[in-house]
Amino acid sequence: MSMLERLLAQKDYILADGATGTNYFNLGLETGHPPELWVLEQADLVAGLHRAFIEAGSDMILTNSFGGNFHRLKLHGAEGQVAELNSAAARIARTEAQRQFDIDGREVLVAGSMGPTGELFAPLGTLTHASAVEAFSAQAMALAEGGVDLLWIETISSFEEIFAAIEAAQKTGLPVGATMTFDTAGKSMMGVAPADFAAEVGVRGVVAVGANCGIGPAELMHSVMAMQPQPGVVRVAKGNCGIPQYVDGAIHYHGTPELMADYAVLARDAGVAIIGGCCGTTPEHIRAMREALDGTPVGKPVDAARLERVLGKAWAGLDEAAESPKRGRGRRRRG
């Protein structure tokens, strides 16, 4: 039995962590500098954010390896460090999870984050299935060697890329979860609908499917509720902390801890098994989500009316905000 199965056998849901990039900016990460390099340059800060999420109540943390594939790292002249960076990211997260277990016996699942390559597949671009599998395989193997419990493919927009990433990740023998980002009229940037994503990916041996990033909690839940995965495949909701907006030349997320707490309870009542935050979500937000989940009895099944009443109308008045994740930090990073 995998750790994910063990945790879900104890409770119907687990709480994941929040943002990486936006929290690193608050710690001094400069715009344009790849956060993945921090596993070597600022390992204490990377460990500290993992620890903060664990202490806030996260049952699952994602490694600082989102852009750790060959194509992403090549943009920064670090394509030769794929194995080193991903292994280090996994070890740092594993150490913090072990630290918590040594304190009180609480298990924290370590998920190896794998984001998109940033390249377009042929004929639109030059990326082929074989080259994508090769890049993702190198990253997945390094994360596995570093000690992750499962591999976590996220913020993908196309079937071609998600299929390549899953194929590569499964070579490790570890469980695989996969999420897409739906932020363009309810579909991914490459036109994939949530229901189609769950149907196509759910039969490929993954253990979890869902949505991350995108616009805000209302839109995220609208996408997740459209998914009907295969039996044995759980759903994931990892939403942004409110709607991203440009303020003074930068993207800001204005969701309150109360908003994220309401979203977490709604996701749980909708039957989502893995609930977390994406861009803008701090340990303070995760703490509020933990308290709400633990302190609020399971409610009635979630329908469209309750979703709108709690989180607002999905996809309403988002012409400008919908562009923010594509061109700002939110599109690149799960935080």
Strand order in the largest sheet: 1-10-7-6-5-4-3-2
- What is the CA-CA span between the terminal residues? 30 Å
Oligomeric state = single chain
The helix content, as a percent range, equals 40-55%
- Main β-sheet description: 8 strands, parallel
State the CATH architecture. Answer: Alpha-Beta Barrel
Shape: globular
Structural class: alpha/beta
Element string (H = helix, E = strand):
HEHHHEHHEHEHEHEHEEEHEHHHH
How many H/I helices? 15
CATH superfamily grouping: Homocysteine-binding-like domain
Could you list the spans in which at least 5 consecutive residues all have pLDDT below 50? 320-332
Could you tell me the number of beta strands?
A: 10
- Give the percentage of residues in beta strands: 5-15%
Description:
By secondary structure, the protein is α/β, with parallel strands linked by helices. The protein has one domain: Homocysteine-binding-like domain (TIM Barrel), CATH 3.20.20. 45% of the residues lie in helices and 14% in strands. Strands 1-10-7-6-5-4-3-2 form an 8-stranded parallel β-sheet. Strand 6 (208-213), helix 10 and strand 7 form a beta-alpha-beta unit. Helix 6 (82-104) packs parallel to helix 7 (129-146). Mean pLDDT is 93; it is low at 320-332.
